[in-house]
Design goal:
Layout: H1 2-27, H2 35-40, H3 63-66
Length: 68
Amino acid sequence: MYALIIPASTPFVLLATVLALSWWEDRILPTPPPVEALAEAPFTPAVPAQLPEPPGADAALTREDAGR
């Protein structure tokens, strides 16, 4: 009989878990700052790092270039 209870109750256990996590997210976790505070802060995008350009296909490798 217990072998039938576990598979039949699995969807309800999963639903209860999702509902509990949703409640926890709404009530316990800190709330984001108000939209007005975000609008006042200036947005400065980060400058991406300049990567060195790889050598061309016709460039011959020397011992120094190969790192030996």
